[in-house]
């Protein structure tokens, strides 16, 4: 019997791990698309994070040689700063995130984190340093506990609860008959968009990365939920280096710097006030969104 159950339980574990890895990849793909064949350099060292300062120096990138996507991107984010990327659809915002994660290799220039070229460090350490909060958090068909702890398998119940409290999902979880053992996902309890995002925030808090990459949702949650979530995201960003890929300008007016991309180039950058004062592209985008929001509110 032992001979039979041992391999079966082993296979079960393997199956579970593969399934989880696939779902995890699925979640990443939204922001990161398919990864290219990228391997660690021989003797690559783990990234040594001091504050999480990010620098793009003359970065060029093309998914295919005949179509340049990013052209000479120079972008620095000091440790603990929040920088927002804005620009029309297809301008290259998500691509900047994918390159920072080294899901693709730059075709020119370099990206460094705390002075270390992302090509010189292990991918494992690079990925551990960057927390991605995607537009839509994908839940695994497993318990809420598992979903929050994902990425930190050794997390204790206290740590899980602390993260859930900070993400303001703990009280909701405790209101469920099975609490943290509640099954969620396709075959379990269906969570709302806001609840799913809170699980995603708790998951990232537990991972505790020095750098955050937020891919802001375009799909609107109801406004109170949106405001609450925004508050949680802002709180999570304190003391970390944050890059926000933003669609709604109202959520990033407080950023240390707003970078406007157009067709793979930085065309403007500065604070919200400075950019409004310049009456350029950002000011035009701001005016257009304000008019849209006013029209929607009047409906
Ligand atoms: P959005 O606001 O719509 O998300 P974005 O500014 O994030 O857009 P990117 O996703 O970075 O834009 O895309 C930049 C350009 O690169 C687009 O023209 C897009 O078609 C192209 N692109 C994106 N991903 C790939 C890919 N995997 N293969 C080839 N081209 C791609």
Lay out the secondary structure.
Layout: H1 2-32, E1 54-64, E2 67-77, E3 82-86, H2 93-100, E4 108-113, E5 116-117, H3 123-129, E6 130-133, H4 144-149, H5 157-166, H6 170-174, H7 193-207, E7 211-215, H8 223-237, E8 241-245, E9 257-262, E10 265-270, H9 272-278, H10 281-298
Parallel strand pairs: 3-8, 3-9, 6-7, 7-8
Antiparallel strand pairs: 1-2, 1-4, 4-5, 9-10
Helix pairs in contact: 5-7, 7-8, 9-10
Residues 33, 63, 69, 87, 89-95 line the site of adenosine-5'-triphosphate.
**What is the overall pLDDT average?**
87
Q: How would you name the oligomeric state of the polypeptide chains in this document?
A: single chain
Q: Strands of the largest sheet, in order across it?
A: 6-7-8-3-9-10
In N-to-C order, the SSE pattern is HEEEHEEHEHHHHEHEEEHH
What binds here, in terms of ligands, is: adenosine-5'-triphosphate
The main β sheet shows up as:
6 strands, mixed
Percent of residues in helices = 40-55%
Class per helix and strand makeup: alpha/beta
| Radius of gyration of CA atoms, rounded to a whole number | 21 Å
Transmembrane segments: 1-15
Subcellular location: Cell membrane
GO molecular function: ABC-type transporter activity; ATP binding; ATP hydrolysis activity
Domain ABC transporter: 54-288
What brief labels describe this structure?
six-stranded mixed β-sheet; 10 strands; four-stranded antiparallel β-sheet; alpha/beta; binds adenosine-5'-triphosphate
In short:
This protein is an alpha/beta fold. Helix content is 41%, strand content 20%.
Task: Give a verbal description of the structure.
The protein is an alpha/beta fold. The protein has ten helices and ten strands. The strands form two sheets. It has a six-stranded mixed sheet with strand order 6-7-8-3-9-10. A four-stranded antiparallel sheet has the order 2-1-4-5, covered by helices on one side. Adenosine-5'-triphosphate (ATP) binds next to helix 2.
């Amino acid at each position: 019997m032992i001979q039979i159950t041992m391999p079966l339980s082993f296979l079960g574990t393997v199956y579970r791990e593969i399934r989880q890895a696939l779902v995890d990849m699925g979640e990443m793909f939204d922001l990161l698309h398919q990864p290219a064949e990228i391997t660690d350099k021989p003797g690559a060292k783990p990234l040594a994070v001091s504050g999480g300062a990010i620098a793009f120096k003359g970065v060029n990138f093309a998914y295919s040689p005949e179509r340049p996507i990013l052209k000479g991107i120079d972008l620095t984010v000091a440790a603990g700063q929040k920088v927002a990327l804005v620009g029309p659809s297809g301008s290259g915002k998500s691509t900047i995130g994918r390159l920072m994660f080294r899901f693709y290799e730059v075709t020119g220039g370099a990206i460094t984190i705390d002075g270390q070229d992302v090509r010189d460090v292990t991918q494992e350490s690079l990925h551990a340093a960057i927390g991605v909060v995607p537009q839509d958090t994908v839940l695994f068909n497993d318990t809420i506990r598992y979903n929050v702890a994902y990425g930190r398998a050794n997390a204790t119940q206290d740590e899980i609860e602390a993260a859930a409290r900070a993400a303001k999902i703990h009280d909701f979880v405790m209101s469920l008959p099975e609490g943290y053992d509640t099954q969620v996902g396709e075959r379990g309890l269906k969570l709302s968009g806001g609840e799913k995002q809170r699980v995603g925030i708790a998951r990232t808090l537990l991972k505790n990365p020095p750098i955050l990459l937020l891919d802001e949702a375009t799909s609107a949650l109801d406004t109170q939920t949106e405001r609450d979530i925004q508050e949680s995201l802002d709180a999570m960003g304190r003391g970390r280096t944050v890059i926000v890929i933003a669609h709604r300008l109202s959520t990033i007016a407080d950023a240390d710097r707003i970078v406007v991309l157009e067709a793979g180039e930085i065309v403007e950058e500065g604070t919200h006030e400075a950019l409004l004062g310049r009456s350029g592209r950002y000011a035009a985008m701001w005016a257009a969104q304000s008019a849209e929001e006013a029209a929607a509110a009047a409906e």
